[in-house]
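Appendix C: a fully annotated inverse folding record. The material below is reproduced so that readers can follow the format used throughout the book. The structure is listed first as tokens, followed by the designed sequence.
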């Protein structure tokens, strides 16, 4: 498909169109997610962590897998790790528009704490793959298998903690439980069909982002790491931004935080699936040092977020707590390192 972009103008227009599709579908799928979380009894936090997090990650996963299949290892990996960094930063923007209290205070839940811990564990496994000995079985690193198994175990753990919780976040005047939110009407089958339709549109646009990302790297001469970290990862992460902003405006705070953290956990699986698609050996050892640095930044950002959820400070500077300021600083550091 890359050969279809015969000029820079066509490439940039296609990139913009795909980005617009992702943005439009992300708006619609957010509203459907909150409805399905309640109508199915799954709950907003778990639905955000699992199904919505995975669905809004479709553009990124298709971008990473398709570019890895074509041999662009660094673009595939940087798209994944860059997406995790920018999506964590999106939470800070949501914090700015929620004026009642610090979002980490109001949206604290056991499910989100477990999900954030799982995210740190998955990122650490990926870092082991990048920095450990170069080893693969049928061109697949063993870490990729472990990542898939660990993610499945983590989802089971989140479900268990929801059904039989042994720890509770204390309620305050700024906490808004899910039960206070209205349950949208409509046939359950219709809601699922709409959800699937928008998910398909997001997936197709994600493939277009990957192809245009390859073309942009060729046209501009920018490295795959820069294109993946600053362009494709941001474009494919737009559903996460739309989701968290709209969820906060609707008052679905657990869904907002759960989608970001859950989406980030799902994004780590980009590396595993890209490793399967990449046929020239382990993808973990076919990337530059910058991607490993961004991965380490992600671990630190997630740890800061976890501390914020545990500390539950109500207010901060401009309604942003210490964790928000640190996340912004870490993301700025990541951009500086990649671009210099």
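Designed amino acids, in order:
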């Amino acid at each position: 498909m890359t050969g279809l972009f015969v000029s820079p103008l066509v490439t940039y227009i296609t990139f913009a169109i795909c980005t617009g599709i992702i943005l439009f579908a992300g708006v619609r799928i957010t509203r459907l997610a909150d409805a399905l979380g309640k109508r199915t009894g799954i709950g907003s936090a778990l639905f955000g962590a699992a199904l919505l997090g995975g669905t809004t990650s479709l553009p990124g996963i298709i971008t990473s897998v398709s570019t890895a299949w074509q041999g662009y290892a660094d673009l595939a990996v940087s798209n994944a790790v860059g997406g995790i960094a920018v999506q964590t930063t999106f939470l800070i923007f949501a914090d700015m528009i929620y004026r009642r209290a610090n979002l980490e205070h109001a949206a604290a839940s056991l499910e989100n704490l477990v999900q954030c811990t799982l995210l740190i564990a998955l990122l650490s496994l990926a870092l082991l793959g990048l920095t450990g000995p170069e080893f693969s079985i049928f061109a697949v690193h063993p870490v990729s298998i472990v990542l898939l198994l660990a993610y499945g175990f983590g989802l089971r753990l989140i479900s268990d903690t929801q059904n039989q919780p042994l720890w509770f976040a204390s309620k305050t005047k700024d906490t808004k439980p899910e039960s206070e939110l209205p349950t949208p009407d409509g046939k359950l089958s219709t809601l699922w069909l709409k959800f699937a339709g928008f998910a398909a549109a997001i997936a197709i646009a994600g493939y277009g982002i990957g192809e245009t990302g390859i073309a942009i790297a060729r046209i501009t001469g920018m490295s795959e790491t820069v294109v993946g970290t600053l362009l494709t990862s941001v474009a494919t992460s737009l559903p996460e931004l739309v989701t968290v902003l709209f969820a906060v405006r609707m008052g679905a705070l657990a869904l907002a935080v759960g989608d970001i953290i859950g989406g980030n956990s799902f994004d780590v699986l980009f590396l595993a699936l890209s490793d399967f698609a990449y046929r020239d050996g382990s993808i973990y050892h076919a990337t530059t040092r910058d991607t490993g640095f961004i991965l380490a930044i992600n671990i630190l950002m997630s740890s800061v977020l976890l501390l914020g959820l545990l500390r539950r400070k109500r207010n901060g500077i401009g309604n942003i707590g210490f964790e928000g300021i640190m996340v912004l600083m870490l993301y700025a550091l990541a951009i500086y390192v990649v671009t210099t």
